[in-house]
């Protein structure tokens, strides 16, 4: 079992490094410049892997996941550069190969299959040329999708940290799936609405997207803070934050990391930039409902805690 966990820890971090290198390679090819200095961002991830494998046998931490955080640090700059380059220079989009149908996808995959008696280097060169001819928008979208999928699968494969149960991990993974879907929808839909004369809006959207990605290294909304020996009476003596820590952290994440910022950005898009369509209105209403329901949930938690504490005080004062 320990060997399996050790292998999972290595494989997960190797996938993180591979995807980050893929993003750096794409940046170098589209910018026609030497951006290999971005590989220095992989050094903290490699150092973390060596230290964690040596001291913790690859096990993750309870509240925070360093490999996921360092993976985000290594891949997010590449996505920023690709997004900004795509907005500034999309003159070759009409000549690229779109991946919007099975037919086009098969053409891209089987392009090298028509050539026979080619060397390995020639085949690799042709494959790189095929990848380079794929549309920038499809490349960026695929990188977003692979990033989010790998964050979920990577967290699943990483050995559990101390104090984290399988039940908590399953809850966390389900939350990650919903969070990833919302984030991908936010970036793809909102960036597609940006006009060429609104570069500042691209910076705002990418900044909010980067901020929302910080949910993945954190486990505060799921991991329980109480110990196994604490009973109901002990819980009554704790503070509001300790008793409802998971609920409160989930509300904080929704209000200040995901749905709250998403709502603000969409309102700015409609009010300040004059962009208005049916799907934008729908997702704005959705974010608004999530914010309101989380505020309502916070009020309910506070009232229930106050009433239970008051009833306990009255019960103890009535005892002789």
From TrEMBL:
Transmembrane ranges, per UniProt, are 7-28, 34-51, 63-82, 139-158, 170-188, 200-218, 248-276, 282-302
Q: Mind listing the UniProt keywords for this protein, alphabetically?
A: Membrane, Transmembrane, Transmembrane helix
InterPro entries noted in UniProt: Transmembrane_26 (IPR019169)
Any Pfam family the entry gives: Tmem26
Instruction: Give the protein name, as stated in the record.
Output: Transmembrane protein 26-like
- Species this chain originates from: Parambassis ranga
**What gene name is given for the protein in this entry?**
LOC114446814
């Amino acid at each position: 079992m320990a060997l399996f966990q050790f292998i999972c820890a290595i494989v997960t971090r190797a996938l993180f490094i591979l995807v980050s290198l893929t993003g750096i390679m794409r940046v170098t090819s589209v910018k026609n410049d030497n951006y290999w200095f971005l590989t220095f961002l992989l050094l903290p991830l490699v150092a973390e892997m060596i230290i964690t494998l040596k001291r913790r046998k690859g096990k993750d931490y309870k509240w925070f996941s360093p490999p996921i955080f360092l993976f985000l640090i290594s891949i997010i700059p590449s996505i920023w550069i690709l997004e900004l380059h795509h907005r500034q220079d999309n003159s070759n989009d009409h000549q690229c190969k779109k991946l919007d149908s099975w037919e086009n996808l098969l053409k891209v995959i089987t392009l090298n299959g028509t050539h026979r008696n080619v060397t390995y280097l020639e085949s690799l060169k042709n494959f790189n040329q095929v990848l380079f001819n794929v549309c920038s928008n499809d490349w960026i979208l695929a990188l977003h999708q692979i990033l989010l999928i790998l964050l979920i699968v990577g967290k699943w494969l990483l050995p559990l940290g101390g104090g984290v149960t399988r039940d908590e991990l399953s809850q966390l993974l389900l939350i990650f799936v919903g969070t990833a879907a919302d984030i991908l929808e936010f970036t793809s839909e909102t960036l597609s609405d940006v006009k060429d004369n609104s570069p500042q809006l691209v910076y705002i959207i990418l900044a909010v997207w980067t901020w929302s990605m910080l949910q993945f290294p954190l486990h505060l909304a799921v991991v329980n803070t109480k110990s196994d020996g604490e009973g109901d009476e002990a819980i009554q003596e704790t503070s509001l934050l300790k008793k409802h820590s998971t609920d409160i952290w989930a509300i904080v994440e929704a209000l200040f990391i995901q749905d709250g910022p998403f709502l603000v950005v969409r309102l700015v898009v409609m009010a300040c930039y004059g962009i208005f369509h049916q799907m934008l209105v729908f997702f704005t209403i959705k974010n608004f409902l999530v914010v309101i329901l989380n505020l309502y949930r916070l009020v309910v938690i506070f009232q229930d805690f106050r009433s239970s504490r008051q009833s306990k005080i009255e019960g103890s004062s009535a005892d002789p």
